[in-house]
Amino acid sequence: MAIKPPMLHRGDTIGIVTLGSPLDSQIIDARIQTLEHMGFDVIVGKYAYYYDGIVAASAEQRAGDLMAMFENRRVKMILPTRGGTGVKDIFPLIDFTIIKNNPKIVTGYSDITILLNILYQLSDLITFQSLLLIDFNTNTPGYNFNQFFAATSTTTSPRVIQNPPGMPLHSLIQGNVTGPIVGGNLTSLVGTLGTSYEVNTSGKILLIEETHEPTNTIYRYLTQLIMAGKFDDCIGVVMGQCTNCSISYRTSYNKLIQDLIVPLGKPLMTNLSTAHSYYKVAIPIGARVNLNTTTNTLTVREATVTA
Fold first, then answer.
1. I want to staple 10 with a disulfide (CB 3.0 to 4.6 A). Which of 39, 111, 238, 302 is the partner?
2. What is the reported pTM?
3. What is the 3-state secondary structure (H, E, C) of 236-278?
4. Domains, the chain, ordered by start
């Protein structure tokens, strides 16, 4: 059974790290101010403000910031500033045993997707595809915060994952399966194929979402996952939205799902609003989830934090 991190309370300490691409210091400071107004203490990683081109700092420096947060007993949650590029560079430098012995909430999406999955695979830690530091601002919908805190600050179980009103989920292949949910951003997942850090989908429900990619690129990435066997042993599929994805060759994202994913015959739900979507459900990576495409429901079957 996966390890659940301790729940987040107001007044707890949140550790800020930049693990991929850099983020402007003024944005970091403004978002930290929001966290402090919400009642949290904040510790900032040594290299969180660094700007060294495509990635914020060296792999050693970024990995060092992450491990320092896991080793700091004050820190309850580790919150990356953003995703971007380069997160997987730090994996060979991470001590997964230390992480397993010091479980903390880790949340994010985009390139952070692969960190969430590898922490589950190698440290047995439930992680959260949910908010990044950039999302802690006044323009973020209350729905997103409600989802985030329902997953990280309560032991409510079961918890039904629901899109906002007016954004229905769609079930395309009937079935009723229960298992750990893994996956996330399509580009990030494809980027780990052929490495020792690629996502393990065996016996899992596979989640996929994407943003700002034309559908011919989505076609390329989905067929790569299919050829890599990532749909062979998964027990179900949840397709999130493809946010701001342009249509290529008159072929839409939904048409790609019909052409590539439906023929695989796995229980299939689509249109989940998560990660890069404006509205973001909170997905606990590694937690047991029930996908029932007969009743058109997605339900987290266990508490995802401990009291």
1. 39
2. 0.97
3. EEEEEEEECCCCECCECHHHHHHHHHHHHCCCEEEEECECCCC
4. 13-152 (3.40.50.10740), 159-300 (3.50.30.60)
